[in-house]
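Researcher: Structure prediction, please.
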Amino acid sequence: MGKIFLSVILLSIISCSSDDEVQNSGDKPAIVGKWYIEKSEIYKSLNPQIQTLYSTDCEKMSTYEFTPSHVMSITFAQSNNTCVKTDAVARKYMFNKGNGKFWYEGEENYPYFVTKLTLSDMVMEDRTQDFDGDGIKDILRRFYKRIN
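Model: Predicted structure follows.
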């Protein structure tokens, strides 16, 4: 009986140790990092439908690099047959991981919502626009892929 009890305690200690190692490994999902938008989906309320927009190769060159307090956006667009850099902007943001609420400084009344965050994927929703003109806010989902 004592050997069984000792075995259970030993297994408990080993499993706790491996949990701590995973938690301390830095492999937790975080918004901090460099991302690009793979696709966007617009959920319209007037005629329940989803409009999917896939990023072009040129648009995928646009990056969104999140630091703990700022996001640096560098955007590219097609001009004739060339992909050109069109903008570079740094903005301060706040992110509440508990409820997924994300907003830019000075725009607290216009939050976005991070509805999915893994090591490689992030989905951010914009619920502030009425795309179909029915007076009801629609949802624009942006699907991000981590670059690093």
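Model: Residues 2-24 form the longest helix (23 residues).
Researcher: Thanks, that helps.
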